[in-house]
Amino acid sequence: MKNYPVFIRALAALACALGLASCGGNGGYVSLTGSISGLTTSGLILYDASSLLSISSGATSFIFPTKVLSNYSYSVTVYSQPTDSTCTITNGSGIAGTDDVSDIKVTCVATSFKLGGTITGLTGSGLEIVNGSNDLTIAAQTDPTKTDSWVFSTKVAENSHYGVTILNQPTGQTCTIANALGTMPAADNLTSIAITCT
Q1: What is the pLDDT of residues 92-151, one digit of tens each?
Q2: What is the per-residue pLDDT across 138-192, written as a single tens digit (0 to 9) for each?
Q3: Statement to judge: residues 116 and 193 lie in one domain
């Protein structure tokens, strides 16, 4: 039965209240807590029994609002993965003792990365570049003799192909792109696409 673990917990809680079972410390209940590393985006939701816990971007720890009965099993899993990342759990299941469970670890690794590069010599307005359906308008540089950076707002999944082209040239200039084609590497942003305008 899907709600069997919840039923067991409720039954054990009643037994504790009636003095028919040994209930341990903390009134027979312990908290499920742990650490989080690498979470830079939103959308991560953890799950234990009937309890869901939404985790904010940048969080480094968590605690479930619903406690677990001592001597009963728990199993923390990823209910929903965060945007552009994959999270895994270690020490996520076991039998609760009389102390809070605090060694659960959630490790998140990015699976999509920023695509960007540099630009020099841009004095005109209207330069627009595109990668797939993602376009970016680059404003004229304050000092076109220097090198400035740019980045697309939409990330690219690792091992996916990218191809940056010029959709619109700036007024009175012609721009060219170097390193425009490739495959997004794993574990890092790509910022090697170079635009030169004359």
Answers
A1: 999 999 999 999 999 999 999 999 999 999 999 999 999 999 999 999 999 999 999 999
A2: 999 999 999 999 999 999 999 999 999 999 999 999 999 999 999 999 878 999 9
A3: yes
Rounded Cα distance between 30 and 64, Å, is 10
The DSSP line for 2-19 is: TTHHHHHHHHHHHHHHTT
CA dist., res. 28 & res. 106, Å (int): 26
Which domain, by its residues, includes 161?
Answer: 112-197
Cα atoms in the 13 Å half-sphere on the side-chain side of 69: 20
Q: Are strands 134-138 and 127-131 parallel, antiparallel or unpaired?
A: antiparallel
User: Which of 135, 123, 140 shows the shortest CA–CA distance to 166?
Assistant: 135
| SS3 state of residue 195 | strand
Give yes or no: residues 95 and 15 share one domain. Answer: yes
Phi, psi dihedral angles at 142 (to 5 degrees): -65, -40
Q: What percentage of the chain's residues is helix, strand, coil (to nearest 5)?
A: 10, 50, 45
